[in-house]
Amino acid sequence: MLIRSRRPQDPTENDVTPEAMYRNRRWFMGAMGGLGLAAALPGTAWAKPPWKDVTPAEAPAWFAAMKENAAWDAVVPEDQSVDKTTPFKDATSYNNFFEFGTDKSDPANRAGQLTTEPWTVMIDGEVNNPGKLSLEALMTPSRLEERIYRLRCVEAWSMVIPWLGIPLADVIRRADPTGEARYVRFETLVRPEEMPGQQSRFNLIDWPYVEGLRLDEAMHPLAFLAVGNYGRVLPNQNGAPLRLVVPWKYGFKSIKSIVRISLVRDQPLNSWQKIASSEYGFYANVNPNVDHPRWSQATERRLPNSLFNPNRMDTRMFNGYEEVASLYSGMDLRKHF
Ligand SMILES: Nc1nc2c(c(=O)[nH]1)N[C@H]1C(S)=C(S)[C@@H](COP(=O)(O)O)O[C@H]1N2
Ligand SMILES: [Mo]
After folding, report:
1. What angle do CA 303, 250, 63 make, to 5 degrees?
2. For 2-328, CATH number?
3. pLDDT of residue 334
4. Residue 23's closest CA among 305, 219, 248, 331?
5. Which of 47, 162, 195, 257 is deepest in the core (most CB within 10 A)?
6. Can you say how many angstroms the Cα of residue 118 is from the centroid of all Cα atoms in its chain?
7. Which of 125, 137, 201 lies closest to 170, judged by CA?
8. Contact yes or no for 224/135 (Cβ under 8 A)
9. Is the pLDDT of residue 270 over 60?
10. pLDDT of 313
């Protein structure tokens, strides 16, 4: 991993791309129907689809203070001309966050109503320092870092996102695991009043959303707890106010809006494994050699893309983070997918 110095970035207003227009099919169909000639008028009538830009939440004082002293060059892609940072608009309008619905646009449209302040995180299980901590108490003993990570969804699309946060290992060390702790289990908030995806009686997911890591995976320096992205407080659709980021694993491991971190003895049953254990495992390491039963994992679609520029690229073992390989030596990664 190459280390390079860079300055903090702020989200920029990106021009609407063709991909963006195709993505919002409802708007696209509406525009087509309403204008009739839309296809013949590129760049004019349909240049501004009605997306709400993300209004930056006011950063809490502790976040602003941590930002003053942040490390902005902690981990960056080896080649930033290949792994260009995904535009803010794509990273905040094409999301998976089933608590708000299953459409990629649901989180952007609905997550704004989630109350993220105050926020507490329960630390419990096999630890000598259990307790319910405010987000500020959880974060401020550490130094804030920016990490620019590739994010590879199991659905075979990917992005490159600059996160702000702290090493997960810091939080685990402070919790002081007992000798019995072997795994870390994470839980997302359950709040149906604010999370419409939790209101249906026909839920795919048995809430709360649960994820887990082996303790040595959780202690790896790349495992990260994010409270921000693009130089600012995390937008709700990206898992505010606290989400996990495990860049060598499929995106579903990177659980959002965390309210509980438990050190446990037994391997947790994560939500997607519970839904379909033949398709989604516990480990979920990015692996181009082990296909999903219904599609290939050999390549990925890097956002933003378009009909004219599909932007397909080869998927890399461990998503290119080969330094984690020793965590899995001797394991059959076909069996432990
Ligand atoms: N609580 C919760 N966390 C979640 C999800 C979810 O539905 N609920 N989706 C996961 C999936 S499948 C992916 S790809 C990433 C997407 O993160 P992003 O929307 O910030 O890019 O979040 C993950 N974390
Ligand atoms: Mo995903």
Report:
1. 75
2. 3.90.420.10
3. 97
4. 305
5. 257
6. 21
7. 137
8. no
9. yes
10. 98
- State which of 254, 274, 303 you would mutate to test the pocket of ligand 1, scoring each by most atoms of that ligand within 8 A of its C-beta: 254
Residue among 93, 97, 158, 261 whose CB has most ligand 1 atoms within 8 A, to mutate: 97
pTM: predicted TM-score of the whole model, two decimal places: 0.87
Nearest CA to ligand 1 atom 5: 97
Query: Read out DSSP for 259-326?
Result: EEEEEESS----HHHHH-TTT--SS-B--TTS-BTTB--SEEEESS--SS---EEE--GGGG-GGGGG
Instruction: Pick the range with the lowest mean pLDDT from 33-47, 153-167, 195-209, 302-316.
Output: 33-47
- Beta-bridge partner residues of 152: 158
Q: Which two tokens stand for residue 195?
A: 């999370």
For ligand 1, atom 21, the nearest C-alpha belongs to 95
**Domain locations along the chain:** 2-328
pLDDT of residue 93: 97
Minimal-distance CA residue to ligand 1 atom 14: 251
DSSP category for residue 94? S
CB 101: neighbour CB atoms within 10 A? 17
Confidence of residue 22 (pLDDT cuts 50, 70, 90): very low
